[in-house]
Amino acid sequence: MRDETPPWDHGVVLVCTHQRDPDAAKPSCGREAGLKLRQWLKQAARAEDGPAARCRVLATGCLDVCPHDGVTVGFEPGHRAVVVDPEADREALLALTRAHFEGLTATAAAGKREKARRALGRLLK
Ligand code: FES
Predict the structure, then answer these.
(1) Closest C-alpha to ligand 1, atom 1
(2) Is residue 65 in contact with ligand 1, taking CB distance under 6 Å?
(3) 55 Cβ below 6 A of ligand 1
(4) Which one of 30, 43, 51, 71 is most buried, counting C-beta atoms within 10 A?
């Protein structure tokens, strides 16, 4: 094992593509709907100017939400999940992706500023 530095430094968006049999006890998001949504969001996010352009949009297995209507999309870091209509909610999902990763960037910047302020405070004592 070895450490690597991946280029997706702003996190990942996980789009469920799990497909259960029609007679399964639990519903599933669906392979085709998930893959189409993932491809659309990947291209739309890459066209952004901000931090959303540097996230990774991944197809994934079941996220244990398993809605009757829609596709589950998770955000990490952030431990957040939403269920979306894979067609009607596309623009709203892009807006959420943008806001999510911009928020993380702002939080990280504030944390770095606070850390620098504390370090400076220790030096000046
Ligand atoms: S099948 Fe998509 S969250 Fe479980």
Answers:
(1) 28
(2) yes
(3) no
(4) 71
- What's the pTM value of the predicted model, to 2 decimals? 0.87
Q: Let me know the angle formed at the C-alpha of 90 by 84 and 45, rounded to the nearest 5 degrees.
A: 115
First to last CA, the chain: 43
SS3 3: coil
| pLDDT given for residue 87 in this prediction | 97
Q: Is 33 a pocket residue for ligand 1 (Cβ < 6 Å)?
A: no
Looking from the CA of residue 66, the nearest atom of ligand 1 is: 4
Residue 60 DSSP class: E
The confidence score (pLDDT) of residue 29 equals 98
pLDDT value for 117: 79
Sorted by where each starts, the structural domains of the chain and their CATH numbers stand as 12-124 (3.40.30.10)
